[in-house]
TrEMBL record:
Name assigned to this protein: Phosphate transporter
Keywords of the record: Membrane, Phosphate transport, Transmembrane, Transmembrane helix, Transport
Record-level Gene Ontology MF annotations: phosphate transmembrane transporter activity
Role according to the record: Sodium-phosphate symporter.
Record's bilayer topology term: Multi-pass membrane protein
GO biological process entries: phosphate ion transmembrane transport
Disordered: region residues: 88-116
Listed GO CC annotations: membrane
InterPro entries assigned to the protein according to its UniProt record, in alphabetical order: Phos_transporter
PANTHER family documented for this protein: PHOSPHATE TRANSPORTER (PTHR11101)
Classification via Pfam families: PHO4
Length: 595
């Protein structure tokens, strides 16, 4: 006999009895001598368990456990879903029991922490040689592709070609760090909840980020041209403006790389804005900066995470109240999913991707996209989960008693989550919805945030080729593709670091929690952009993840991780400004006569 639906974990239900809660997909296969091998993402220590009251889950390495050494009653081992479940987390008392029962827990945690910061090879489960080969190929492409671009074409002097080549590399460096840090906005929660593996998330984001940068990048307002620097101040100092734009790219890229190394999700917009403000203030004076625009950017430090947290808190509470407490949670989730997808896709299409200025055409386009999205999700749910839904319908009467006991529970009260087949259906449904929302967010992110690297890059190239610093810039398609390539390269090589922070280290995520956070963040960013409100996508998503954690209780949020993230937010603009000033000084000393 073998099964994939049994797992050992300790949690408490409302009645106070211990029950089993599936943590990840597991597989049990009996071998000789009554030995079972547990292939599971959450491993258990190598110690014998005498009874159910003393069994506690521990982070350790994979070990075989002899069935003869276990004396567990039938109430403890029950069939559970084959998807990730943290519907009822461990209570504080149980966590204290873990600490008291395991004297070597500190040592085990240190070993686990050392494995939580893997290199590229371990992150994608590939060999070190393959990871090195990928990195070398990316480096060769980065150094050679500019020679095939029109920006280094005929008619330019050798000096201008060299400076253009250096400028393209600075822009690529900034785009690389955007991919390493900011792409976690779209994919971090999907990886943390288990809806996507890290490899699937990176491949999906790579395609969508590049497509978004290539297809939508031209429609993004240039930050430098329209809101940060007063270019007319540098009308007679074009070489200084060129050095400042180059320094801003280098400074923002440097800080993003530092933040990515430590896994801090910082705002790339704030980073490039801080770099430009530092340069403009020191080398152009107070009049070189649009202070009203700067005030709007800094106000988003508070607005973004607070609004994101509030919306995700309410979304997650709605899921628990109206799905978890339904007589048939699986059926409730399957019914609500197409409706939610229709509403979300219609709104996103109407607001963000209008193909015409005629409102009737735009509405028809949005409704068509909404119906298509709802149909695809409904088909996917029926194909993958239809056999489970049919089982739950036959057992629906058995849940009426439990449902009646929860009718009078308040909206903000905690509710015991579903188990067994119901849990598998709920998480399967929300897994599809979360992946869909992640794809939309990834595409939009590629189209919007590529401007943080391409805007200053095109401005610098325009100055080199004889254009005015304050003129309207035409962004070549090849430069957008260059920025998209940089984002994808950064995502592949370092993106897993910040993905781990958003997806795993702030609070534990499941498909329902991940969907609540991602849906809230996408909604807030989308409609805030429509009404011109200063919202940071990074800050909004981090706040949304915190909001889901707060919905489960203050203890569910890692205070240490949140402290590190907030600190990185506060110092982003001043650090970017300082680095930009230093880099500009260095460039003006090394290249006193640029033209």
């Amino acid at each position: 006999m073998s099964t994939s639906s049994y797992c050992f974990s300790s949690s408490a239900n409302p009645g106070g009895e211990r029950r089993c809660s599936q943590l990840q997909c597991s597989y049990v296969s009996p071998h000789k001598n009554n030995v079972c091998s547990y292939f599971h993402d959450t491993y258990f220590s190598k110690r014998e368990v005498k009874d159910s009251n003393s069994f506690l889950p521990l982070k350790s390495r994979k070990v075989p456990i002899k069935l003869s050494s276990l004396s567990l009653n039938s109430k403890f081992i029950i069939p559970c879903a084959s998807l990730s479940s943290f519907a009822d987390g461990e209570s504080g008392d149980q966590q204290e029991q873990v600490k008291d029962a395991v004297p070597n827990e500190g040592k085990l945690d240190q070993e686990v922490k050392s494995e939580e910061s893997p290199g590229m090879a371990q992150a994608f489960n590939i060999s070190s040689r393959t990871a090195s080969a990928i990195s070398i190929c990316i480096a060769i492409a980065a150094l050679s592709l500019p020679f095939f671009m029109k920006s280094l074409g005929q008619g330019l002097s050798l000096k201008t070609k060299v400076l253009s080549y250096i400028t393209l590399l600075f822009g690529l460096y900034m785009a690389w760090n955007i991919g390493a840090n900011d792409v976690a906005n779209a994919m971090g929660t999907s990886v943390g909840s288990g809806a996507l593996s890290l490899r699937q998330a990176v491949l999906t984001a790579a395609v969508l980020e590049f497509s978004g940068a290539l297809l939508m990048g031209k429609h993004v307002t240039n930050t430098m041209q329209n809101g940060i620097l007063v270019a007319n101040v540098f009308q007679e100092k074009q070489s200084l403006l060129f050095a400042g734009l180059l320094s801003s790219l280098g400074a923002a890229g440097t800080w993003l790389q530092i933040a990515s190394y430590y896994g801090w999700p910082v705002s790339t917009t704030h980073c490039i804005v801080g770099s430009m403000v530092g340069f403009g203030l020191v080398y152009g004076g107070v009049g070189a900066v649009f202070w009203s625009s700067l005030a709007r950017v800094t106000s988003s430090w508070v607005i973004s995470p607070v609004v994101g947290a509030a919306v995700s808190f309410l979304v997650y509470k709605c899921i628990r109240r109206f799905v978890y407490s339904a007589p048939n949670p699986g059926q409730a989730a399957a019914t609500a999913a197409p409706v939610a997808v229709f509403a979300g896709v219609t709104a996103i299409s109407f607001v963000a991707f209008p193909l015409s200025k005629n409102p009737i055409v735009v509405l028809a386009q949005a409704l068509t996209c909404g119906f298509a999205g709802a149909f695809l999700v409904s088909r996917a749910i029926n194909n993958k989960l239809g056999h489970l839904l049919s089982k739950t319908k036959s057992a629906e009467g058995e849940t009426e008693e439990d449902a009646s006991q929860q009718k009078n529970i308040g909206f903000l009260s905690d509710i015991a989550g579903p188990t067994g087949t119901q849990l598998e259906i709920v998480y399967g449904v929300f897994g599809y919805m979360q992946v869909l929302s992640a794809c939309f967010m990834s595409f939009a992110h590629g189209g919007n945030d590529v401007s943080n690297a391409i805007g200053p890059l095109v401005g610098a190239l325009s100055i080199l080729q004889g254009g005015a610093g304050g003129a309207e810039l035409v962004i070549p398609m090849e430069v957008l593709a260059w920025g998209g390539f940089g984002i994808v390269a950064g995502l592949m090589m370092w993106g897993y670091r910040v993905i781990a922070t958003i997806g795993k280290k702030i609070t534990e995520l499941t498909p329902t929690r991940g969907f609540a956070a991602e849906f809230a963040a996408a909604s807030v960013v989308l409609f805030a952009s429509k009404f011109g409100l200063p919202i940071s996508a990074t800050h909004t998503l981090v706040g949304a993840v915190m909001g889901v954690g707060f919905a489960r209780g203050l203890n569910s949020v890692s205070a240490e991780t949140v402290k590190g993230i907030v600190t990185s937010w506060v110092i982003t603009i001043p650090v970017g400004a300082f680095l930009s000033i230093v880099y500009t000084w260095i460039l003006t000393k090394l290249l006193p006569n640029l033209f």
